[in-house]
Write a structure and sequence with these properties.
Layout lengths: L6 E3 H7 L4 H9 L7 E2 L6 E4 L3 H12 L4 H9 L3 H41 L6 E5 L2 E7 L6 H14 L9 E7 H5 L8 E5 L10 E3 L2 E9 L5 H14 L7 E6 L12 E7 L3
Antiparallel strand pairs: 1-3, 2-3, 4-9, 5-7, 5-8, 6-7, 6-10, 9-11, 10-11
Length: 272
Protein backbone atom coordinates (compact mmCIF):
# COMPACT_ATOMS: atom_id res chain seq x y z
CA UNK A 1 0.00 0.00 0.00
CA UNK A 2 1.33 3.50 -0.85
CA UNK A 3 2.08 5.92 1.97
CA UNK A 4 -0.72 8.27 0.91
CA UNK A 5 -3.25 5.48 1.54
CA UNK A 6 -1.82 4.56 4.92
CA UNK A 7 -4.11 5.13 7.88
CA UNK A 8 -2.78 6.94 10.91
CA UNK A 9 -3.95 6.73 14.49
CA UNK A 10 -5.55 9.83 15.96
CA UNK A 11 -2.38 10.49 17.96
CA UNK A 12 -0.16 10.19 14.88
CA UNK A 13 -2.43 12.44 12.80
CA UNK A 14 -2.65 15.03 15.56
CA UNK A 15 1.13 15.06 15.96
CA UNK A 16 1.55 15.42 12.19
CA UNK A 17 -0.44 18.66 12.32
CA UNK A 18 0.83 19.93 15.66
CA UNK A 19 -2.47 19.80 17.51
CA UNK A 20 -3.94 17.92 20.46
CA UNK A 21 -5.81 14.74 19.61
CA UNK A 22 -8.70 16.03 21.75
CA UNK A 23 -9.21 18.69 19.07
CA UNK A 24 -9.72 15.96 16.47
CA UNK A 25 -12.09 14.12 18.79
CA UNK A 26 -14.12 17.31 19.26
CA UNK A 27 -14.19 18.05 15.53
CA UNK A 28 -15.53 14.52 14.99
CA UNK A 29 -18.17 14.87 17.71
CA UNK A 30 -19.59 18.07 16.22
CA UNK A 31 -19.45 16.69 12.68
CA UNK A 32 -16.87 19.20 11.45
CA UNK A 33 -14.07 16.79 10.51
CA UNK A 34 -14.58 13.06 10.66
CA UNK A 35 -11.93 10.32 10.54
CA UNK A 36 -11.33 8.41 7.34
CA UNK A 37 -12.22 5.14 9.07
CA UNK A 38 -13.01 3.55 12.40
CA UNK A 39 -10.95 0.52 13.41
CA UNK A 40 -13.53 -2.29 13.67
CA UNK A 41 -11.48 -4.12 16.29
CA UNK A 42 -11.17 -1.38 18.88
CA UNK A 43 -13.31 1.53 17.61
CA UNK A 44 -10.31 3.86 17.34
CA UNK A 45 -10.41 6.75 14.87
CA UNK A 46 -8.07 6.52 11.88
CA UNK A 47 -7.04 9.26 9.45
CA UNK A 48 -5.38 9.35 6.05
CA UNK A 49 -2.77 11.65 4.57
CA UNK A 50 -5.41 12.69 2.01
CA UNK A 51 -7.29 14.51 4.80
CA UNK A 52 -4.36 16.72 5.74
CA UNK A 53 -5.14 19.60 3.38
CA UNK A 54 -8.76 19.89 4.54
CA UNK A 55 -7.69 19.85 8.19
CA UNK A 56 -5.11 22.55 7.53
CA UNK A 57 -7.78 24.75 5.94
CA UNK A 58 -9.92 24.31 9.06
CA UNK A 59 -6.96 25.14 11.30
CA UNK A 60 -6.13 28.20 9.19
CA UNK A 61 -9.70 29.47 9.43
CA UNK A 62 -9.71 28.92 13.19
CA UNK A 63 -6.44 30.87 13.43
CA UNK A 64 -8.22 33.72 11.64
CA UNK A 65 -10.97 33.58 14.31
CA UNK A 66 -13.55 32.12 11.95
CA UNK A 67 -16.28 30.65 14.10
CA UNK A 68 -16.99 26.93 14.21
CA UNK A 69 -20.47 27.62 12.85
CA UNK A 70 -19.03 29.48 9.84
CA UNK A 71 -16.58 26.66 9.15
CA UNK A 72 -19.35 24.07 9.46
CA UNK A 73 -21.44 26.01 6.94
CA UNK A 74 -18.51 26.12 4.56
CA UNK A 75 -17.73 22.42 4.97
CA UNK A 76 -21.33 21.56 4.13
CA UNK A 77 -21.21 23.77 1.02
CA UNK A 78 -17.60 23.58 -0.11
CA UNK A 79 -16.95 25.45 -3.34
CA UNK A 80 -14.39 27.83 -4.79
CA UNK A 81 -16.86 30.71 -4.61
CA UNK A 82 -17.78 30.10 -0.96
CA UNK A 83 -14.15 29.78 0.10
CA UNK A 84 -13.22 32.92 -1.83
CA UNK A 85 -16.00 34.92 -0.18
CA UNK A 86 -15.00 33.67 3.25
CA UNK A 87 -11.33 34.45 2.67
CA UNK A 88 -12.11 37.90 1.23
CA UNK A 89 -13.86 38.83 4.46
CA UNK A 90 -11.11 37.45 6.69
CA UNK A 91 -8.31 39.06 4.66
CA UNK A 92 -10.04 42.43 5.04
CA UNK A 93 -10.26 41.89 8.81
CA UNK A 94 -6.64 40.79 8.91
CA UNK A 95 -5.54 43.90 7.00
CA UNK A 96 -7.26 46.06 9.62
CA UNK A 97 -5.51 44.16 12.41
CA UNK A 98 -2.15 44.55 10.68
CA UNK A 99 -2.73 48.27 10.23
CA UNK A 100 -3.54 48.55 13.92
CA UNK A 101 -0.39 46.63 14.92
CA UNK A 102 1.75 48.78 12.62
CA UNK A 103 0.23 51.88 14.18
CA UNK A 104 0.93 50.58 17.68
CA UNK A 105 4.53 49.78 16.69
CA UNK A 106 5.03 53.28 15.31
CA UNK A 107 3.57 54.77 18.47
CA UNK A 108 5.88 52.67 20.63
CA UNK A 109 8.86 53.81 18.55
CA UNK A 110 7.71 57.41 18.98
CA UNK A 111 7.49 56.99 22.76
CA UNK A 112 10.93 55.37 22.79
CA UNK A 113 12.33 58.31 20.83
CA UNK A 114 10.73 60.70 23.33
CA UNK A 115 12.37 58.83 26.20
CA UNK A 116 15.75 58.97 24.42
CA UNK A 117 15.21 62.71 23.99
CA UNK A 118 14.41 63.13 27.69
CA UNK A 119 17.59 61.30 28.66
CA UNK A 120 19.88 63.35 26.40
CA UNK A 121 18.17 66.73 26.00
CA UNK A 122 19.44 70.14 27.03
CA UNK A 123 16.43 72.25 28.01
CA UNK A 124 18.26 75.50 27.35
CA UNK A 125 19.45 74.52 23.87
CA UNK A 126 17.83 75.78 20.69
CA UNK A 127 18.93 73.82 17.64
CA UNK A 128 18.26 73.38 13.94
CA UNK A 129 17.11 69.96 12.75
CA UNK A 130 15.97 68.45 9.47
CA UNK A 131 12.56 66.78 9.16
CA UNK A 132 10.80 64.76 6.51
CA UNK A 133 7.35 65.69 5.27
CA UNK A 134 4.43 64.51 7.40
CA UNK A 135 0.71 64.53 6.67
CA UNK A 136 -1.36 65.47 9.68
CA UNK A 137 -5.03 65.35 10.50
CA UNK A 138 -6.00 68.69 12.05
CA UNK A 139 -9.02 70.09 13.84
CA UNK A 140 -9.72 73.77 14.38
CA UNK A 141 -9.76 75.27 17.87
CA UNK A 142 -9.69 78.73 19.39
CA UNK A 143 -9.11 80.33 22.78
CA UNK A 144 -12.57 79.30 23.96
CA UNK A 145 -12.04 75.57 23.27
CA UNK A 146 -11.88 73.70 26.58
CA UNK A 147 -9.47 70.87 27.28
CA UNK A 148 -12.41 68.49 27.51
CA UNK A 149 -13.58 69.57 24.07
CA UNK A 150 -10.10 69.10 22.65
CA UNK A 151 -10.05 65.49 23.90
CA UNK A 152 -13.45 64.91 22.30
CA UNK A 153 -12.24 66.33 18.97
CA UNK A 154 -9.13 64.16 18.94
CA UNK A 155 -11.10 61.06 19.93
CA UNK A 156 -13.58 61.65 17.12
CA UNK A 157 -10.80 61.96 14.53
CA UNK A 158 -8.93 58.86 15.66
CA UNK A 159 -12.21 56.95 15.46
CA UNK A 160 -12.90 58.32 11.97
CA UNK A 161 -9.54 57.02 10.79
CA UNK A 162 -10.27 53.58 12.28
CA UNK A 163 -7.78 53.77 15.13
CA UNK A 164 -9.07 52.03 18.20
CA UNK A 165 -7.50 54.24 20.86
CA UNK A 166 -5.78 57.58 21.35
CA UNK A 167 -2.46 55.84 21.94
CA UNK A 168 -2.44 54.68 18.31
CA UNK A 169 -1.48 58.20 17.22
CA UNK A 170 0.65 61.11 18.37
CA UNK A 171 -0.91 64.52 18.70
CA UNK A 172 -0.24 68.11 19.70
CA UNK A 173 -1.17 71.72 19.05
CA UNK A 174 -0.34 74.34 16.43
CA UNK A 175 0.07 78.10 16.58
CA UNK A 176 0.61 80.26 13.47
CA UNK A 177 4.05 81.83 13.12
CA UNK A 178 2.31 85.11 12.25
CA UNK A 179 0.79 85.07 15.73
CA UNK A 180 4.20 84.51 17.32
CA UNK A 181 5.70 87.42 15.39
CA UNK A 182 2.99 89.74 16.72
CA UNK A 183 3.37 88.51 20.30
CA UNK A 184 0.09 86.60 20.29
CA UNK A 185 1.57 83.56 21.98
CA UNK A 186 -1.69 81.90 23.01
CA UNK A 187 -3.41 81.95 19.62
CA UNK A 188 -3.59 78.18 19.17
CA UNK A 189 -5.70 77.53 16.06
CA UNK A 190 -5.38 73.79 15.46
CA UNK A 191 -4.77 70.43 17.06
CA UNK A 192 -2.77 67.98 14.99
CA UNK A 193 -2.91 64.21 14.95
CA UNK A 194 -0.18 62.20 13.26
CA UNK A 195 -1.93 59.01 12.18
CA UNK A 196 0.35 56.27 10.82
CA UNK A 197 -0.09 54.87 7.33
CA UNK A 198 -2.73 57.21 5.97
CA UNK A 199 -3.85 55.94 2.55
CA UNK A 200 -5.47 59.14 1.33
CA UNK A 201 -3.68 62.45 1.87
CA UNK A 202 -6.41 64.59 0.33
CA UNK A 203 -7.59 67.33 2.64
CA UNK A 204 -4.80 66.75 5.18
CA UNK A 205 -2.37 69.31 6.55
CA UNK A 206 1.19 68.94 5.23
CA UNK A 207 3.97 69.51 7.71
CA UNK A 208 6.70 70.45 5.23
CA UNK A 209 10.04 68.80 4.69
CA UNK A 210 13.08 70.91 5.55
CA UNK A 211 14.94 72.56 8.40
CA UNK A 212 13.23 73.39 11.67
CA UNK A 213 14.10 75.27 14.81
CA UNK A 214 13.74 72.86 17.72
CA UNK A 215 13.45 73.81 21.37
CA UNK A 216 12.03 72.54 24.63
CA UNK A 217 9.98 74.16 27.35
CA UNK A 218 9.45 72.80 30.86
CA UNK A 219 6.72 74.00 33.17
CA UNK A 220 3.18 75.34 33.18
CA UNK A 221 1.75 77.18 30.18
CA UNK A 222 2.02 80.65 31.73
CA UNK A 223 5.71 81.07 30.94
CA UNK A 224 5.86 79.47 27.48
CA UNK A 225 5.82 82.94 25.84
CA UNK A 226 9.29 83.47 27.31
CA UNK A 227 10.55 80.40 25.42
CA UNK A 228 9.02 81.72 22.22
CA UNK A 229 10.77 85.04 22.78
CA UNK A 230 14.06 83.12 23.04
CA UNK A 231 13.26 81.25 19.82
CA UNK A 232 12.48 84.48 17.97
CA UNK A 233 15.70 86.05 19.20
CA UNK A 234 17.62 82.94 18.08
CA UNK A 235 16.03 83.12 14.63
CA UNK A 236 16.80 86.84 14.33
CA UNK A 237 20.43 86.42 15.39
CA UNK A 238 20.92 83.63 12.82
CA UNK A 239 19.05 85.45 10.03
CA UNK A 240 16.39 82.75 9.91
CA UNK A 241 12.85 83.33 8.65
CA UNK A 242 10.17 81.22 10.31
CA UNK A 243 7.08 80.11 8.41
CA UNK A 244 3.82 78.20 8.73
CA UNK A 245 3.06 76.93 12.20
CA UNK A 246 4.80 76.08 15.42
CA UNK A 247 4.15 72.43 16.26
CA UNK A 248 4.01 71.65 19.98
CA UNK A 249 3.99 68.15 21.41
CA UNK A 250 4.24 66.94 25.00
CA UNK A 251 6.94 64.29 25.34
CA UNK A 252 6.88 63.19 28.98
CA UNK A 253 3.22 62.96 29.99
CA UNK A 254 3.60 59.24 30.68
CA UNK A 255 6.37 59.60 33.25
CA UNK A 256 5.37 62.64 35.35
CA UNK A 257 2.85 63.40 38.07
CA UNK A 258 3.14 67.20 38.27
CA UNK A 259 2.25 69.70 35.55
CA UNK A 260 5.32 71.68 36.59
CA UNK A 261 7.46 68.88 35.15
CA UNK A 262 5.66 68.85 31.81
CA UNK A 263 8.01 69.20 28.82
CA UNK A 264 6.86 70.51 25.45
CA UNK A 265 8.83 69.94 22.27
CA UNK A 266 8.57 72.90 19.90
CA UNK A 267 9.38 72.64 16.18
CA UNK A 268 9.01 75.54 13.73
CA UNK A 269 9.79 75.38 9.98
CA UNK A 270 12.51 77.62 8.60
CA UNK A 271 11.74 79.29 5.29
CA UNK A 272 14.44 78.28 2.80
Amino acid sequence: MEKKDKLLTIGQFAALHGINKKTLMWYDEIGLFRPAAINPENGYRCYSYRQSLILEIILLLRELDVSIMEIQDFMKNRSAENLKNLLDEKIENLDLQLMHLQAVRKTLCSHRQDMNTLLTMNLSEISIIEKEEHCLVTVDIDKSTSFEKEVELITAETSRYQLGRLHDASYGSMIPVDSLLTGNFDNYTKLFIEIPFLKNKKGLHTQPKGNYIKAFYKGTWEKIPQKYQEILEFAHSHNLTLSGFSYEKGINEIVIDRIEDYIVQIEIPILE
